[in-house]
Automatic annotation (TrEMBL):
Gene from which this protein is expressed: SET
Entry's Gene Ontology cellular component terms: cytoplasm; nucleus
SUPFAM superfamilies reported for this sequence: NAP-like
GO BP term, example: nucleosome assembly
Protein family per UniProt: Belongs to the nucleosome assembly protein (NAP) family.
Gene3D superfamilies, alphabetized: 1.20.5.1500, Nucleosome assembly protein
Subcellular location: Cytoplasm; Nucleus
Assigned keywords, A-Z: Cytoplasm, Nucleus
Protein name per the record: SET nuclear proto-oncogene
Length: 140
């Protein structure tokens, strides 16, 4: 026959169970605190990402509005302004003799206004400060 089972009082069972409950509650509390820490870090990173995204959006919004001078804006029609939304960058290259002039290259994304990816404008300065302008800025 098997040995009789040891008798354990209800008090002993409850005290062991209470200890397990305390350990379980402590582990749960630690887990909750850890989750809070992780969530706080995620919130911090999201805030940082939002700030950086805003800076990038502001930078490119500014680049998308290359014509903000009132005198230049007055020369442009609505279609001209719409075409400038496709402008991605502008480069100015001075001639070897910087006093003789410069070239401006306008780089565009694909757009419905013209086929060229780059439109160029050359400005030559001749003796007596006379200007001569060449370029492919006409519409195609």
């Amino acid at each position: 026959m098997s040995a009789p089972a040891a008798k354990v009082s209800k008090k002993e069972l409850n005290s062991n169970h209470d200890g397990a409950d305390e350990t379980s509650e402590k582990e749960q509390q630690e887990a909750i605190e850890h989750i809070d820490e992780v969530q706080n870090e995620i919130d911090r990173l999201n805030e940082q990402a939002s700030e950086e995204i805003l800076k990038v959006e502001q930078k490119y919004n500014k680049l998308r509005q290359p014509v903000n001078h009132p005198q230049v804006s007055a020369l442009l029609g609505e279609e001209d302004e719409e075409a400038l939304h496709y402008l991605t960058r502008v480069e100015v290259t001075e001639f070897e003799d910087i006093k003789s002039g410069y070239r401006i290259d306008f780089y565009f994304d694909e757009n419905p206004y013209f086929e060229n990816k780059v439109l160029s404008k050359e400005v030559e300065i001749h003796l007596q400060n006379q200007l001569k302008s060449n370029g492919n800025l006409g519409r195609t």
